[in-house]
Amino acid sequence: MVNGEKISKDVWDLWVKMRTRGTSPEDLTPEQLTENLDGLIQVYVAGQQARKEGLASGEDGARIELMQQTAMADMLSRKFLEGDEPTTEEKRAEYDKQVAQLPKLEYRARHILVDNEAKARELIASLDSGARFETLAEQNSSDSSAQEGGDLGWFAASRMVKPFADAVETLEKGAYTKEPIQSQFGWHVIKLEDTRPLNPPAFEEVEAQLGPLVQQTKFQAYLEELTKAAKVDRKL
Predict the structure, then answer these.
(1) Are 196 and 105 in contact (CB under 8 A)?
(2) Which of 6, 48, 94, 106 measures 20 to 30 Å from 137, CA to CA?
(3) CATH of the domain at 174
(4) Is 0.70 topped by the overall pTM?
């Protein structure tokens, strides 16, 4: 006991394991036991003094509370899912759900990234006059793709920032944007090289990754039921 606060056996066992890399208290000498207990007592004394001084408040106090609540939620998740190995049928259903959410096309495009609209318009005018897109990208783009002539390879539109993705989805093969496209990175001139169907991996290739997704879905549904049953007073 430290000022009336109990140090439980579970805390003591964990403290020793953490300090000795897995050794249990039963395997320590009397001197080691005393040394470890003295250290743990000091931790409790320091914690009590910190609370007295109001240190467990504000952002630091909020961080401690969130860590505790998150740890408790993790324990609940492990208990809820213990022994619940997803079946092949459940993983197949999750696979179908994930595939349905995938985009249908992949795009291959080039772009030139500059820091102002006027420069982007100047580059578009050069393209209109017959300049090669690759050459302009190599000479003007600030993006790392410049040395490849602006080539970004194959990508799903969802991987790109929205203004870029919207522009790519409206272009025809071989066409480039006639107006500069602005994003948080700067001003883009974009050329669509090609499109192809996006083929998802086979079920067997990703089956091992589907189990955790099934369990996550189950636990999320359980949490939603708990939340519905909880008395919650929202005051934002």
Answers:
(1) yes
(2) 106
(3) 3.10.50.40
(4) no
